[in-house]
Amino acid sequence: MAGSWTSWGGDVHLDWDPATGREGLADAIRDAIRAGRLARGDALPSTRALAGDLGVARGTVTRVYADLAAEGYVHTSQGAPTVVVADGVQQASPPRTRPRSPEARWSLLPGHPDLSAFPRAAWLSATRRVLQHAPASAFGYVDERGVASLREALAGYLARSRGVVADPERIVVCAGYAHAISLLAIALRERGELAFEDPSLWVFRDYARAAGARITGVPVDGAGIRVSELDSPAVVVTPAHQYPLGMTLAPRRRAELARWAVEQGGYVIEDDYDGEFRYDRKPVGALQALAPERVAYAGTASKTLAPGLRLGWLVLPRTLVEPVRAAMATHGWRTPVLEQLVLADLIGSGDYDRHVRRCRAAYRARRDRLLAALPGYLTPHGISAGVQLLLTLPEDGPGEAEVLASAKRQSLALQGLGPHWISQGEHPQGLVLGYATPAEHAFSATLAALGQTLADVSR
Ligand SMILES: Cc1ncc(COP(=O)(O)O)c(C=O)c1O
Fold first, then answer.
1. Beta strand pairing status for 379-381 and 74-77?
2. From ligand 1's centre to the CA of 186, what distance in Å?
3. Which of 2, 236, 322, 340 could form a disulfide with 150 if both were Cys (CB 3.0 to 4.6 A apart)?
4. From the CB of 312, is ligand 1 less than 6 Å away?
5. Ligand 1 pocket, 238 CB below 6 A?
6. HTH gntR-type domain: from which residue to which, for each copy (predicted)?
7. Has residue 20 been placed in a domain?
8. Does the pLDDT at position 10 exceed 70?
């Protein structure tokens, strides 16, 4: 059983099994410090409060705190709170990785486009052109922000396709959104907490935490993030298609969030991971256009081309360009030049747009086939955009664990909603289905495996 302490404002989750006793409790607190859930300067709950929450003797907690003080993790003093004095993030346990299931025969794991649709011929032609024409100097150590021709191509593409207020000088090309969020976490570290939507993809919270950010959650309701509950200097949002719940941030909330950022001097990180894929309605433009000096726009080639390329981009408020460039420089990071030149060529030739249009039509057709295959007692959400949808499970039906176990029997990899939540407690149960993931030839069989999985648990 895992415990969590609740009588304390921070509400830090403790993975503690009472059967492991005092040693186990000390381990759980060490882990929380190492993983950055508890940062230097944080006060631990009083021995009385923690003992009460966990249902153990107060003396046990007192001894645990004394052990941790002797090891240099915390400082205790008579009559004052026990305070964390170690910096954990350098020794943080490795972030949990994305769900992958190479052993499953079929997969509806979210996060992938159809890799078999990668535009090999267009990429090859663009690579040829680049190698024929690029000067030798192009292969040197270029500006940390990325290759100028790609930043120019992206500025034009993002302005026209997503309404982003883009200027090549403010663009930083990086190794996907995973890299972008790490860079921003470093650049914003001094400002304090970084808020994420609750729920959100845990992978990126882990990356930000590993980069030194203190993470907090802000609830999401039917209209998107509850801006009125924001109490952090910076926040990460997915306005076009909330991940994983799937709604579009309501117009009044978009305006409220932009106003919050301008009035409070806060920063918004806009994760526009699938903005190119919108099916039934007009595309929603980027939030960044409402407050370009407060919103850091992040895009990626992971959904439009392939995640293996590791190509993403940031369009930054002017005040963040130098901190992000400096974060690249101090870590010795640069994005590979050849891929940048090829992507610039692909955008310039129109092949990128043509590929995105083809994929949009294909994914829309898949979405329709998936919806048609779902049993009526399940409710899909977030179906008008992107490459994944959320399927909520009825309260009186099978839960996530049961469905995932059934999927395993069908050799089908599925992702539950559970790990996305930041707050503890009861949450709706659901499945996040990535319908772009299977190769085209495997799509029908994958739908059949899903049908069998659901039929088996509804009996
Ligand atoms: C919510 C969200 N943001 C961003 C990304 C893109 O991540 P990356 O560019 O690191 O591949 C994904 C991909 O799965 C995602 O699901």
1. unpaired
2. 19
3. 340
4. yes
5. yes
6. 19-87
7. yes
8. no
Q: Do 343 and 222 share a domain, yes or no?
A: yes
Give the structural domain span for 429.
106-115+356-458
223 & 245 share domain: yes
Question: Mean pLDDT across the stretch 408-412?
Answer: 96
pLDDT of residue 92: 46
Six token digits for residue 378: 């399940």
pLDDT given for residue 388 in this prediction: 97
**Could you write out the DSSP letters of every residue in 8-40?**
STT--EE---GGGHHHHHHHHHHHHHHTTSS-T
Quick one: pLDDT at residue 89?
52
User: In 3D, which of 289, 299, 342, 347 has the Cα closest to residue 174?
Assistant: 299
Can you give the CATH number for the domain in which 11 is found?
A: 1.10.10.10
Q: What is the pLDDT of residue 20?
A: 81
Burial of residue 167 (number of CB atoms within 10 Å: 0-12, 13-18, 19+) = middle
Would you state the structure tokens that stand for residue 75, as one six-digit string?
């400082």
Give pLDDT tens digits for 12-51.
Answer: 667 777 878 888 888 888 888 887 778 888 888 888 888 8
CA-243 nearest atom, ligand 1: 1
Residues 82 and 134 grouped into a single domain? no
Q: What local confidence, expressed as pLDDT, does residue 448 receive?
A: 97
In this structure, are 335 and 363 located in the same domain?
A: no
Cα separation, 366 vs 444, in Å, equals 10
Number of separate domains in the chain: 3
Looking up residue 441, the CATH number of its domain turns out to be: 3.90.1150.10
The length of the chain in residues reads 459
Position 201 scores a pLDDT of 97
Give percent of the chain above pLDDT 70: 94
Query: 201 in ligand 1 pocket by Cβ < 6 Å?
Result: yes
Q: From the CA of 262, how far away is ligand 1's center (Å)?
A: 26
Give yes or no for residue 272 CB within 6 A of ligand 1: no
Residue 177, ligand 1, Cβ within 6 A = yes
Express each pLDDT in 84-130 by its tens digit. Answer: 888 765 444 555 656 555 579 999 999 999 999 999 999 999 999 99
CA 424, 427, 429, 430 torsion: positive or negative?
negative
Q: Are residues 451 and 312 in the same domain?
A: no
pLDDT at 330 over 70: yes
Q: Is the CB of 288 inside a 6 Å radius of any atom of ligand 1?
A: no
Closest CA to 403 of 382, 377, 422: 377
pLDDT tens by residue, 220-260: 999 999 999 999 999 999 999 999 999 999 999 999 999 99
CB of 313 within 6 A of ligand 1: the answer is no
Q: State whether 345 and 379 are in the same domain.
A: no
Which of 97, 182, 225, 300 is the pocket-test mutation for ligand 1 (most atoms within 8 Å of CB)? 300
